[in-house]
Amino acid sequence: MQRLSANPHLTHLLTANEFFVRLTAHTRHHGETRLDRWWSEATTTKQFRTITADGHGLWSVADTTAGFWLETDTGTEPLGRVVAKLDRYAQLIRRGGPRYPVLFWLGSEQREEHLHRLLRGGRGDARFATATHATDPAAAVWLPGGATCRIRLAELPSDHGQPVADNPNYDDGIFVL
Predict the structure, then answer these.
(1) Average pLDDT, the chain
(2) pTM higher than 0.70 for the full model?
(3) N or C: where does the chain have the smaller number of CB atoms within 10 Å of the terminal CB?
(4) The pLDDT of residue 9 is above 90
(5) CA distance linking residue 73 with residue 68, whole number of Å
(6) How far is CA 44 from the centre of its chain?
C-alpha cells in the first residue's frame, strides 16, 4: 500500500480506473449494458505492443459492441504530446489492428476545447472523441473529432480490425471477447 501511495502517477492511475468503475456501475442499473473487456495499461500494452493506452475496453449495449482506447488526461502533459499519441493508433490500424476510437477523457472543458482546436483537419486514420471527467462515460457525452453533437460511447464508430497476428481480438480468425 505504501508503494502505491508513493507512486507519482497515482492520480492518473486512479482517474483511469474511475472511468471503468463508472462504466461498471452503469451496468448495474442498465441491464442491456455490459463492460465486456477492461484492460489496464499494462495488459493493453502487452497485447497490442505498439500503443500505450491508459486502458482498453469493449462496451456493449444490447447487441452492439464498441471497442475503445482510453487516454486519461490529468493536465500534466502538453497538448502537443497528447495529440502525437494518435500516430501510434494510426500505425496499428494500418497493420490491420482495431480501428477503435481513442477516448480522451479530460479534466476540464477548456482543455477539451483546446484539444479539438489542435486536432482540426484530422490526424491520420485514428478516430477520437473527447469528454470530461465530470461526466458519465456511458451517456451522450462524447464529442467525436469534427462533430458538433455529443453521442453515447456505444454510438462511436468501432471496427475490431482484421484477423492478423498483431490483433489479439482474434484467435484462429474468430473474434474473441
Answers:
(1) 90
(2) yes
(3) N
(4) no
(5) 15
(6) 11
The span from the CA of 57 to the CA of 33, in Å, is: 13
Residue ranges making up the domain that contains 51: 2-175
Q: How many domains does the chain have?
A: 1
- Neighbouring residues of 175: CB distance < 8 A, sequence distance ≥ 6: 160, 163, 169
* Cell numbers given for 62: 444490447
The grid coordinates listed for 137 are 462515460
Flag whether pLDDT at 122 surpasses 80: no
- Cell 474473441 sits on residue: 176
| Euclidean distance between CA atoms 64 and 157, whole angstroms | 11
CA dist 124 to 8, 88, 99, 120, 137, Å? 32, 10, 12, 11, 25
Contact, 105 vs 19, CB < 8 A?
yes
**38 touches 20 (CB < 8 A):** yes
**Residues forming beta bridges with residue 23, ordered by sequence position:** none
Residue 86's pLDDT band (boundaries 50, 70, 90)? very high
